[in-house]
Design goal:
There is one protein chain. This protein has about 160 residues and is mostly helical. The protein has one domain. The protein contains eight helices and two strands, in the order H-E-E-H-H-H-H-H-H-H. Helix 6 packs antiparallel against helix 8 and helix 7 crosses helix 8. It is about 75% helix and about 0% strand. It is globular and about 45 Å long. The protein has a two-stranded antiparallel ribbon with strand order 1-2.
Length: about 160
Amino acid sequence: MIEHYLYFGRAIAVAAPAGIIIWLFANINIEGTSILNFVANFLNPFAKLMGLDGYILTAFLLGLPANEIVLPIILMSYMQKGILVNLEDTFQIGEILRQNGWTLLTGINVMIFTLLHFPCSTTLLSIKKETGKWKWAVLGFLLPTVCGIVLCMATTLVWNIFAI
């Protein structure tokens, strides 16, 4: 039972600062452009190789504290809101995604990367705690992430070759 409280404590210790960082990224503007937009634009060329866009990749990175916030970050970015959004109307979510360039390939690659990317930070901290070494947490981060990147790039390459 104590382990559950320790896990919960680690989650709070990571989630609170992450929420502040996400809010700052979305609300601090430099010459009229948010930090979130700067980061997304910087990541966009690499994300395109994966069949994604810069906002999606940025959302995955900002979602490190809790993977379930990736879609709200994507929606916040597309809607240019300064706060996380939680829409329950799946039709409305689909329309927002389509209006921002999502295709079947984008959806497939988001699913692939959702399955094959780094675990949340609380899990990584638990790996470090259980093993006593950061190298296992780093490996737990890198192994699935590299697999996800490679598989997304391969999927995009095959898709573009066959113009499915």
